[in-house]
Design brief:
The complex is a heterodimer. Chain A is mainly α. Chain A has 15 helices and four strands. Chain A has one domain. Chain B is globular and about 55 Å long. Classes of the chains: A mainly alpha, B alpha/beta. Bound molecules: adenosine-5'-triphosphate (ATP) and magnesium ion (MG). Adenosine-5'-triphosphate binds next to helix 1 of chain B.
Chain lengths: ~375, ~280
């Protein structure tokens, strides 16, 4: 009977592939320019720019992770800052121990523990002197928390705004917990004054460049992973959950496990983003868990365009670029601007920047689209 | 095929009471006596009001049964009982000889092979027609299998065959949201067929359709006759007359069977004319 097999699309259309690879190449070139050309040279890229872009790429990974659950599966999380911060704290534990006796009190313990008059590390700091162990924590702590929380929330069929509020409450509760000195994570000062990572001086330009490049590679890897998931049949099940969960149940899928899968994966990605963030900015403290931070993540995704993966990456860059500029010129107005961005995007750009680009692109190529066989047919 | 065969259900795989999803092993329906569905003395009350009143009705294997009845006769409620959505106050409902539908959960019943089309069509509007059928196709619906799923040649053929049956080959690569109302209804029937149900329940399949679409739906149902057991609930008498051919038509009224027989017999029945046709 010969029904033609479905066209198997490559991961991205050619134009998008070109954009992704060109963007990656340019971003990869910057730290090399920073290292090879001295200050004053026309080709010099400032260390400030490198630090800023490294930070933005961490945010971009978080935005990508949030897009998987919000954009594709329709689960709005207002607590992803928690997973980001947990990944950051997990890595921070290693960085604190790597300080050794170079702290102010020249003790084996971190300064904040000396200050609290603690004599030994609490049990949950065991093994944290090992880099690999902390990397394991970076993945496991957000992953297990998300899995357990998600299991009970999704099983109880908590959805929509109720789910969002609970995630917001979760990150708020965690913030209060981490603010306490007795929790053993440095209270409101958190972790800072890192000296070295894997033996390398953490402030050295070469170390910074490597951290930057690792972040870039992680971002690209996360994008390709997320894209291959959303292009798979599982991706179509996820959008099915978003569009009509009950319909999906009627055709025989149990939404619980699919939600749990994408929710946990997203939390892990977010944790990795936080772990890359901490050595680059040199500090992690409980304010990363504040509800406002998680809401900002949502705005990055909305601005870039939900359900597009690349959009949220761009959105994280654009919004944080504006934030950097505003907080240096008119710091007191930034929150108003952020609110305005959200309102304007919701009203005028519901598909975000990615939707706008897509629309402009379609207009450019419109005359050619008429020849598209898939477009013919129905009255 | 033992008579006491329970529905295959591994409790370990089913926390949260979500039993029955994602299984590939079909439960066995015992069709040894030629009947696929047996409703006996079913009563359903809502706050004292009897939506179904001692309803008794059997359907044979491969039969296309039309059920008609005025508004509020209990047709949708009957489907709710069969699919496990509503529990009867009394009476029994059996699928084949052995499966007691009144004791099974909704997903278990769906898994056992009863497919239902609701009055309002719901398809995945952002997915293409092809993808809608692909999602519905009978296969392992667990997370891992879904992540790894690659369409095999015969699966593409099966989807192609269904597309041809529901006459949506031309629309295969369009988002389902762009289909007309009638086309969405066919797509939904196609999605049910992809799940290879043993019994198909269609609630008012031609509601809101144009005349041409109604006619086309009649042809479609006739093509399914014999291959599937079907129960079609409809208001539209002309449509029912068109698809009933020589088959049995059941008239429901106030929650029980008022008359049953061929379309001609039913149309000639005094009581039917009084409560339904003669209005
Ligand atoms: N959940 C419910 N609670 C209370 N009454 C109900 C409920 N569901 C149905 N009924 C009542 O039971 C009766 C039968 O309803 P049902 O929907 O089965 O009729 P129907 O034959 O499908 O009608 P229609 O042709 O309008 O679809 C109606 O009077 C209805 O109001
Ligand atoms: Mg009804």
């Amino acid at each position: 009977m010969g029904f033609a097999a479905p066209p198997r699309p490559s991961l991205f259309p050619p134009a998008v592939w070109t954009g992704v690879l060109a963007g990656t190449a340019i971003l990869a070139l910057l730290p090399i320019l920073n290292l090879t050309f001295a200050d004053g040279s026309a080709l010099h890229i400032s260390s400030f720019t490198i630090a800023l872009l490294g930070k933005f790429m961490c945010f971009a990974i978080a935005a990508l992770a949030l897009d998987l659950v919000w954009g594709y599966t329709g689960i709005l999380s207002l607590g992803h800052g928690l997973f980001f911060a947990l990944g950051g704290y997990a890595h921070g534990m290693y960085l604190m121990r790597a300080i050794g006796r170079d702290g102010v009190y020249q003790s084996d313990l971190p300064d904040f523990m000396v200050f609290l008059d603690w004599k030994a590390y609490p049990w949950y700091w065991s093994f944290t002197e090992h880099f690999w162990y902390c990397m394991l924590l970076v993945v496991l702590v957000p992953g297990i928390l998300a899995f357990v929380f998600g299991f009970f929330a999704f099983r109880s069929r908590i959805k929509g705004v109720y789910f969002s509020i609970i995630t917001q409450a979760l990150t708020f509760a965690a913030m209060l917990l981490f603010f306490r000195n007795n929790t053993g994570f440095g209270g409101n000062n958190g972790f800072t004054d890192f000296k070295r990572i894997l033996g390398f001086t953490i402030t050295a330009p070469q170390t910074k460049a490597v951290l930057y490049l690792v972040t870039l590679a992680t971002l690209l890897g996360a994008l390709l992973l997320a894209r291959s998931i959303t292009q798979s049949k599982l991706g179509r099940v996820l959008t099915g959950i978003r569009d009509s969960e009950s319909r999906l149940m009627f055709v025989g899928y149990d939404p619980l496990w699919f939600k749990l899968f994408v929710w946990t994966l997203s939390a892990v990605l977010c944790g990795i983003a936080g772990a890359l963030y901490v050595p680059q900015v040199g500090i992690i403290n409980p304010s990363e868990m504040s509800p406002a931070n998680s809401i900002e993540m949502v705005i990055w995704v909305a601005t870039g365009g939900r359900g597009t993966l690349i959009g949220p990456i761009v959105g994280a860059g654009v919004v944080n670029g504006m934030k950097t500029w505003f907080t240096s010129v008119l710091p007191q107005y930034w929150l108003f601007v952020l609110g305005a961005i959200f309102v304007l995007v919701t009203l005028f750009l519901p598909q975000g920047i990615a939707g706008l680009v897509r629309k402009l692109w379609a207009r450019r190529t419109a005359p050619r689209a008429v020849a598209d066989p898939a477009a013919g047919g129905v009255s | 095929m033992s008579a006491a065969e329970p529905i295959v259900d591994n409790p370990d795989e089913n926390p949260a009471g979500s039993a029955g999803y994602g299984h590939v092993v079909p439960a066995n329906v015992d069709l040894s006596h030629g009947g696929i569905l047996y409703l006996d003395d079913i009563t359903v009350s809502f706050d004292g009001f009897r939506a179904l009143n001692k309803l008794t009705l059997d359907i044979g294997v491969g039969e296309l049964r039309c059920v008609i009845g005025p508004n509020g006769a209990g047709k949708t409620t009957m489907m709710d009982v069969i699919t496990g959505k509503t529990r009867p106050d009394s009476g029994t409902a059996f699928f084949g000889q052995t499966m007691d539908l009144t004791r099974m959960s909704e997903p278990d019943i769906a898994h056992a092979g009863i497919g239902r089309k609701f009055q309002r069509p719901t398809v995945f509007e952002n997915h293409t027609v092809f993808e809608n059928l692909e999602l519905a196709m009978k296969m392992d619906k667990g997370v891992r299998a879904t992540l790894m799923a690659k369409l095999k040649g015969e699966q593409v053929d099966a989807i192609g065959a269904t597309l041809a049956l529901i006459r949506l080959e031309e629309q295969a690569w369009r988002p389902a949201g762009l289909l007309s109302h009638g086309q969405k209804q066919w797509l939904e029937i196609g999605m049910l067929l992809m799940q290879e149900p043993r019994l198909l329940l269609l609630d008012e399949p031609v509601a809101g359709m144009t005349d041409a679409e109604t006619e086309r739906t009649g042809e479609l149902l006739n093509e399914l006759r014999g291959k599937h057991s079907l129960m079609v609930v409809e208001h539209d008498m002309d449509f029912v007359a068109g698809i009933a051919e020589g088959g049995i038509v059941t008239v429901l009224h106030e929650g029980s069977v008022l008359a049953q027989g061929t379309m001609d017999e039913v149309q000639a029945d005094e009581r039917v004319i009084e409560v339904y046709l003669g209005r």
